[in-house]
């Protein structure tokens, strides 16, 4: 999945759940700078951050990054 598409999906799900970047970053245990870079698509979201984000937002990893997850055989 292209970084920008993933970035848009992360941002959209975060907003849908009513969280600010700061709130989500705190729940993930990352800095707001890291989350902001991931949401802008300037930093690649690795497997662990994608799984943390999906868990924190209460969604399946497949909803967040279908291509990323299916290519690695990860199941929630």
TrEMBL record:
<dbReference type="InterPro" id="IPR010982">
    <property type="entry name" value="Lambda_DNA-bd_dom_sf"/>
</dbReference>
<dbReference type="Pfam" id="PF01381">
    <property type="entry name" value="HTH_3"/>
</dbReference>
<keyword id="KW-0238">DNA-binding</keyword>
<dbReference type="InterPro" id="IPR050807">
    <property type="entry name" value="TransReg_Diox_bact_type"/>
</dbReference>
<protein>
    <submittedName>
        <fullName>Helix-turn-helix transcriptional regulator</fullName>
    </submittedName>
</protein>
<feature type="domain" description="HTH cro/C1-type">
    <location>
        <begin position="10"/>
        <end position="64"/>
    </location>
</feature>
<dbReference type="InterPro" id="IPR001387">
    <property type="entry name" value="Cro/C1-type_HTH"/>
</dbReference>
């Amino acid at each position: 999945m292209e970084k920008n598409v993933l970035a848009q999906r992360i941002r959209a799900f975060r907003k849908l759940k009513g969280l600010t970047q700061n709130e989500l970053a705190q729940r993930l245990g990352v800095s707001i700078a890291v989350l902001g870079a991931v949401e802008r698509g300037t930093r690649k979201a690795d497997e662990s951050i994608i799984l943390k984000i999906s868990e924190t937002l209460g969604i399946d990893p497949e909803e967040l990054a279908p291509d990323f997850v299916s290519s690695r055989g990860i199941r929630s």
